[in-house]
Structure formats: C-alpha cells, structure tokens
Specification:
The protein is α/β, with parallel strands linked by helices. It has a single domain, classed as Uracil-DNA glycosylase-like domain (Uracil-DNA Glycosylase, subunit E). It contains 7 helices and 7 strands. The strands form 2 sheets. A 5-stranded mixed sheet has the order 2-1-5-7-6, sandwiched between helices. It has a two-stranded antiparallel ribbon with strand order 3-4. Strand 3 and strand 4 form a beta hairpin. The structure holds uracil (URA). The site of uracil has 13 residues, from helix 2.
C-alpha cells in the first residue's frame, strides 16, 4: 500500500522521497549525543560514508577532525549530520564521483533534518557549505555573504562555514590554510555560543 505522500517512512533506510536511494549503499543517519548544544550539518555522505554508514569518515571528515582538534572541541560532543542522507554520485571509471544534490533532493530530505533538530535540540547549528545552508535557512541565503555570521532561525543560531571538501579542493596550500583557519574560527565561535 502506498505511503501518504507527506509521511516520513519508518526508517531512514526505507526513504523513497527522492530517487537517490537507488544508487546508494545505504542511508547515512546523523551521529552524536541524543541531545547536543552544537550540531554540524554537511551536504551529503561521500563515497566512504556511503560504505560505512557513518557521516564524515572520509577525507572531509579527517579535515573536520583536525579542525575540531584545533578548536578544542571533541568530535563526540557534537552531533554530526548531513542535509541529504543518501550519496549522489556518477561513475568515472572505477571511481564514484560526488555530485551535488539537486534542490528537490535536498528539499525532500529536509523532513529528516527537521526531525534531528527536534530531537537533538541544538542551540547552535553550523552549516557546512551551501547545500546545508539552503536546507537550514532557505535557498536565498548565500554562503559568501553569511560565512561566520550567526543567524537566528527557528529558535536557534545557524552559523555558515566553508565545507571541508571545498577546502580540500582549493588549488594552493595558502588558500587551503586560510579556509581551514576560517572553519576553525567558526567552530570556536559556535562552541562559545552553544555553551
Ligand atoms: N561530506 C559531507 O558533506 N558529509 C559527509 O558526511 C562526508 C563528506
């Protein structure tokens, strides 16, 4: 029997609200404390996250771990999740290349993010990259205008930061170091506002 269109499926892994489940290994739920003052929202699982079923365990996750260490934040204090829960990719030879989720895919997944926000009740949410920012604040919000600027939304503060994968893609070391420092600064600020 068909689901009523607006209802959430019982489990994330059963979600068919958009087609991304077809090519993904599994849905990747958020992880962290049941209640946490600080939540980080990324874009979507990458290749390694799709295989492991856990967020931020690949290269972007390692960069994030370095940023947590520099900011003096324990990864296990923070609730980590993504705006989109299934990995969107295209085959390039043997590799699975990340593709940015479409706006409808992010919109379809927003109900899951809202459920996590309602359960975890973070005081501060760091939006990593433009996809997370659009899911949290609406599509008009621009990362370039708002990076490091706390925005009050739905009774909590949302602070946008660069996505760690963006830092990894920057061409030279100096630009990478500057963008990394920027993430660390936002994490420190978010932690201070959350506690
Ligand atoms: N990039 C993301 O946005 N999220 C992950 O979980 C991994 C990489």
């Amino acid at each position: 029997k068909a689901m009523p269109p607006r209802a959430l499926p019982h489990t994330l892994d059963d979600c068919r609200r958009c087609p991304l489940w077809r090519n993904a290994t599994q849905a990747v739920p958020g992880c962290g404390p049941a209640r946490a003052p600080l939540m980080l929202v990324g874009e979507q699982p990458g290749d390694q996250e799709d295989l492991a079923g856990q967020p931020f365990v690949g290269p972007a996750g390692r960069l994030l771990d370095d940023a947590f260490a520099r900011a003096g934040i324990g990864r296990d204090e923070v609730y980590l999740t993504n705006a989109v829960k299934h990995f969107k990719w295209e085959a390039r030879g043997k590799r699975r290349l990340h593709r940015t989720p479409a706006q409808q895919e992010a919109a379809a997944c927003r109900a899951w993010l809202e459920q996590e926000l309602a359960q975890v009740q973070p005081r501060v949410v760091v939006a990593l990259g433009a996809t997370a920012l659009a899911s949290l604040l609406g599509t008009e919000a621009r990362l370039n205008d708002l990076r490091g600027v706390p925005v009050q939304s739905g009774g909590r503060l949302v602070i946008p930061a660069w996505h760690p994968a963006y830092v990894l893609r920057l061409p030279d070391r100096e630009a990478q170091a500057a963008a990394f420092d920027d993430i660390v600064r936002v994490l420190r600020q978010a932690q201070a506002l959350a506690t």
